[in-house]
Backbone:
């Protein structure tokens, strides 16, 4: 009786080995499942990035607003007839009595920056290029 129980135990171990450690075993399935989850997260991030880029491409193709904004921010360009104004230093607290007065001199239709915002106070001649980094 003892040898039969021992033989059945060995046979059970031989059957269990491929289930746990073999080529298509549980450990391999668990590892592949983990890899699939990581790839799905990466794919979602890439889909969001692609959607953002598609929107940017659409804006660049259809309207001049995005091109104009990019030229202003990245290259410091201004429109003809505009006066570039840049604020230097820290902005005052809202409601402060020492708030600087807004410089006049911008032509009608020009875009002037509000006091305390980046891109106001230092006037440059028409057509001059500013090198301000934000």
Residues:
């Amino acid at each position: 009786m003892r040898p039969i129980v021992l033989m059945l135990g060995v046979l059970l171990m031989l059957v269990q080995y491929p289930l746990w450690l073999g080529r298509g075993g549980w450990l391999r399935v668990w590892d592949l499942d983990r890899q699939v989850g990581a790839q799905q997260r990466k794919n979602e991030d890439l889909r969001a990035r692609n959607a953002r880029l598609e929107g940017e491409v659409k804006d660049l193709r259809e309207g001049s607003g995005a091109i104009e904004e990019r030229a202003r921010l990245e290259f410091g360009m201004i429109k003809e007839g505009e006066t570039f104004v840049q604020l230097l230093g820290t902005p005052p607290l809202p409601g402060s009595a020492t708030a600087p007065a807004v410089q006049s001199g911008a032509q009608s239709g020009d875009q002037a920056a509000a006091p305390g915002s980046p891109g106001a106070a230092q006037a440059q001649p028409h057509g001059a290029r500013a090198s301000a980094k934000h």
